[in-house]
Amino acid sequence: MANSEFEYVRKFEEWDALAPSNWIVVRIDGRGFSKFSKRQNFAKPNDRRAIDLMNAAAIEVVKQFTDIVIAYGQSDEYSFVLHEDCQLFERRAAKLATSISTAFSVEYCMQWDAYFPGQVLDRPYPTFDGRCVLYPKKRILRDYLSWRQADCHVNNLYNTTFWNMVKGNPATHTSPMTPTDAELALKGTFSADKNEILFKRFNINYNAEDEIWKKGSVVYRKFEDKQTDTTAAQQFIKPTDDQARKKPQSRTQMEKEKKRKQKARVVVEHVDIIKDKFWLENPWILD
Ligand code: DGT
Ligand code: MG
Ligand code: MG
Ligand code: MG
Ligand code: MG
């Protein structure tokens, strides 16, 4: 059957390998979450159970795919960063995007009960689309992550102000507004205006809001022994010169590196990844 008359149809398939030496970001995003969050009565503007579930799913995905070096999530989206040298699925875009987004979707549904006990998850079940984006330089990859984190902050400030205006505050004689009126009132306002509205009308100091809402969630591997980690990172990932970078890892080295990653603890933190501090403290993440 090997050479059947039908086999020519294979030629219609496209080879979609992503260009080498580029950082790959697989961004997944919940399908129709505006509707889904309403149907499941998510708290407004932020539901802790929902974000904890997103993070739990992301942790499992990071554990499953050792090529993922860091992930960043907010709202109904997560960005998974695969190392520039990643060879998983021969870097085929559709394989990477679908494998990661389906793994995430399954985790999200399977862990639903743990975060929404007694709340029925019914059809249409939540699913996440996925896309691959390439970034040729670490600098640009960092700008990408900064863009998502800045987006998180801007949206959170807006949503926090908006939902407080809709709710109103009797203590300051602030009457509840309709969503349309609140939207109109916020049109064209700057961050400073929203901070002031929150402070004066709602007695909320935005800076004191939980970091999880302002910064989103960063998922990465923490190695028990930092010393060992740095040594291992230098030995297996970090090339000492250009020559070393071009030399591919041996199979044994790759296996050892994979095991080391599988043993590492995967953590979620709500920290700034725009400034240099985080990257200086964790230099091996993008090494
Ligand atoms: P899409 O992605 O094109 O299929 O459409 P959506 O509806 O998923 O839109 P998107 O991804 O731009 O926006 C995410 C929606 O999810 C947005 O309407 C707010 C909602 N959402 C996410 N997290 C929370 C939450 O914690 N609480 C509430 N109430 N809503 C949330
Ligand atoms: Mg969307
Ligand atoms: Mg969505
Ligand atoms: Mg979204
Ligand atoms: Mg197969």
From TrEMBL:
Keyword annotations of the record: GTP-binding, Magnesium, Metal-binding, Nucleotide-binding, Nucleotidyltransferase, Transferase, tRNA processing
Name of a matching Pfam family: Thg1
Binding sites annotated in the UniProt record for Mg(2+) 1: D29, G30, D76
Keyword Magnesium among UniProt keywords: yes
Domain Thg1 C-terminal: 140-275
Name listed for the protein in its UniProt record: tRNA(His) guanylyltransferase
Stated role: Adds a GMP to the 5'-end of tRNA(His) after transcription and RNase P cleavage.
